[in-house]
Amino acid sequence: MPENIPVSTIMSTQLVILNTTDSLEKAERLFKKHNIRHIPVVEGQQKIVGMLSLTDLLRISFADGAYEDEEDIESVVYEMFTLSQVMAKKIRSVAPQTSVREVAELLAAKEFHAVPVVEDGNLVGIVTTTDLIKYLLKQYQ
């Protein structure tokens, strides 16, 4: 397996992002529309301030299919919290030149599954455990 491959070669650059002023309902729509599990949260254009995972959203939702009026219940719950209250604020980020191995070690050691890639203070990508698995599978072809 090649050594020192930069994470920039496997990171996602077609980013779905949220701003700190966005609603949790918008977040849910983006998760569903793009079939993703992590969304970086930014202030301004690209300054990363947090990460919202689908799991974070599900933790505050009372309705997981048990109620007929699930959308109404979720709307009420989502209005009780702000995005800033629900998102992870203490996030780790990596630079584009960080090796794939280093990112894999970071994700294996921590309890999160996505890392924002930041260059000069700006969000330029995101790498997830899925990106790492796809990369590893290519190594075996």
From TrEMBL:
UniProt entry keywords in alphabetical sequence: CBS domain
PANTHER family: CBS DOMAIN-CONTAINING PROTEIN, CBS DOMAIN-CONTAINING PROTEIN CBSX3, MITOCHONDRIAL
Protein name: CBS domain-containing protein
Stretches assigned to the CBS domain: 11-70, 87-141
Species lineage: Bacteria, Pseudomonadati, Bacteroidota, Flavobacteriia, Flavobacteriales
Metal-binding recorded as keyword: no
Species the sequence originates in: Robiginitalea aurantiaca
